[in-house]
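Rotation project, supervised by the postdoc (A.L.). Task for the rotation student: set up a whole-complex structure prediction and record inputs and outputs verbatim in this book. Inputs entered:
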Amino acid sequence: MVTNATEGYTFDVFKRHCASHMVLDLLSGKWTYLTVTALRQGRMRNAELARKIEGISPKMLSQTLRGLEHDGLVSRTVHAEVPPRVDYELTALGEELAGLMDQICIWAQNHVPEILTHRAANGDPEAQERLAAAGAR
Amino acid sequence: MVTNATEGYTFDVFKRHCASHMVLDLLSGKWTYLTVTALRQGRMRNAELARKIEGISPKMLSQTLRGLEHDGLVSRTVHAEVPPRVDYELTALGEELAGLMDQICIWAQNHVPEILTHRAANGDPEAQERLAAAGAR
DNA sequence: CGCATTAGTAACCATTGGGTAACTACTTTC
DNA sequence: GAAAGTAGTTACCCAATGGTTACTAATGCG
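Outputs recorded:
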């Protein structure tokens, strides 16, 4: 159980119906992580994001950005120009979260070999292939 | 693009088919986060975890633990006793990740009010209710 | 014998998340 | 007048995720 520093809230992440289950919403979703991380590099347009995040469909990019905007992590600015220009930027709140997410990203990148080794040892064929490919290089 | 410190790997999280997409696998999944965080408090048995993580079904607990074990983040020890006793513990690798996840968890807890305010402003009825309930306290 | 306890797994179903493709709206340029 | 470029949305479909329920195995205890 944790007591919130600023307000008087008392809650426990492990309980259902607890507001901090929003954590899960923030982290889940296949594209949230990549989108937030991409925006760390600064303000970007829809098409730029689509190009950067390989494999994201227009629908999911839009949906993910809408979600982040909803939570106040990303701001969306429409410029009155032709052709239209819309850009997205992390808010201060978003920046904070992005920093933490980036830590995990860096950690993961540095431990890819270890995790692959574990997976391969447990019989994961994809991990075995990847390891073999990396070893051959 | 990031170059791995220990090996010679070069990869980019934003590319598909990149090994660091494992990040996503680690973070996604409704229960991974809670399970890892729960295990930060030390070695635990199946039933203890089930009690702690409110709402998790036996199936999902088992599946989540199996996944974490697969990746080498959690170790599973079976004791030759009757009734059977099995306990789970974070490995060194798991501990590291758990620490980072906890940062995000703490951040989220501290910013619940802000995020709820944003959501409420964007017309989210659940957020409006929660805010009203918190205000009344 | 039969029940209780622990730690599951298996089968089945409902929900949701995500992908694909097609379509809109607006204006400048050819 | 038609095409191109920008930023989307909508409809439709499939696959993955997760929930529910029922079942197993092993053994000590009354």
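Student's summary: The first strand of chain B starts at residue 2 and ends at 3.
Supervisor addendum: The CA atoms of residues 91 and 123 of chain B lie 43 Å apart.
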